[in-house]
Amino acid sequence: MRISGPWTALLALLSINAISCSAVKRIGNNPGRFANATLVRLSEFLSTGYKKGVRPVRDWRQSTMVAIDLMVYSILNVDEKNQVLTTYVWYRQQWIDEFLVWSPEDFDEVKKVSIPTANVWVPDIVINEFVDVGKSPDIPYVYVSHDGLVRNYKPIQVVTACTLNIYNFPFDVQNCSLTFQSWLHTINDINITLMRTPEDVKEDKSVFMNQGEWELLHVLSKYNSFSLDNDDYYAEMKFHVVIRRRPLFYTVNLLLPSIFLMVMDIVGFFLPPDSGERVSFKITLLLGYSVFLIIVSDTLPATAIGTPLIGVYFVVCMALLVISLTETVLIVRLVHQQDLQPRVPSWLRYLVLERAATLLCVRDKHRICSSLLSSSPLPHYTENNIHTGSRCAHHHTCDVSREHGVRGMGLPVRDPTPPVMDNILQEVSCIRQYLERRDESRDVAKEWLQVGYVLDVLLFRVYLVAMLTYSITLGTLWSVWQYA
Prior knowledge:
alpha+beta; 7-stranded mixed β-sheet; 4-stranded antiparallel β-sheet; 11 helices; rod-shaped
């Protein structure tokens, strides 16, 4: 039977559709397309009738147990002024979703699948110490196992408030807490537990990048339940991140220069006390230390609640330099007394030249004073000075009678005496009086110089003992803090 035109076109179209269906059937037998079709079918099975706004339990009396875990990856910043800690952590949480369960036999043995986070129920667990939103990567998927186990793993940049104690800087150890809890649900709805044991969490440093300024000591974990109104109780898991600062940079750039300047200040005491160079030397050290403090002021952490001990150390060192300069000025002033100075008081001579000299083992005082006088700028009198002094003495003593002048020389009185001899005797008498006053002035200067030398030794040893005691105390404290 012959088929007319319209029927011929219809038969041709049916044959083409049959060929296409057979081709699609052959392609569908391909394993790759079959697996994809299974995932699509599984996704449609799980999303059918699923309510992501409802807590995934069949019995509403049963709480959802959320297991969490924390691994510290890096310490990004420690802001002592604002009391803020910035860390990068790997956060993991998992829970059972009773509405996301399937039989692997029905879906070609598929036992787990990734689902968009926006399509499933997620617990509202937050960090209480959050103060800013960090630059965390967006992970839009969660893993779901066939038994309903949902795993939500993601890295987080955590910017949290932390009470930072900088008193021990740069040997400080900081303890900052990260508290995870459900912001809304009580313990009857959502409870929290650890994925691993507390010992494993404490000693786990496998992912920590430890090449920065801070070293991770350990992460302590503690579970707690609390109530705000004695009615509803909330569960929380608190992680204590304990970190320690590496002090090498601050030791080299802060402590060692300060120690060197203080050592040079001690060395400056070996300059002669009657030398003016000691004053200029110590003033130079004081100015150098002031410039050093200006440079390191930006390096020290600044807070409104306290000052680091190293800041107190620098201030005390500055005070010691000022005390050293003051002592030097007083000693130099003491050993450079003028000729018209009074004699050393008896009580000062007893305390300094007898008691203190014996205590300091400064026994050979005459040898010390002779060596000091040889280098001290005592007045050297020339012939012109003598004549000038004699003329000055002549104006004050020439009104003395000839008889007294002659008797002062121990000579018999001769009357009459030639005028020339009388003038010569008066001049000799004036010269003798002047030499006696000069010798007396030198003796007084020698005594003051000896007093200044003994006091300089005494003050130097007191200064040295104070500095050593202060340094040993600080060194012991910092050593205990560093290796505790």
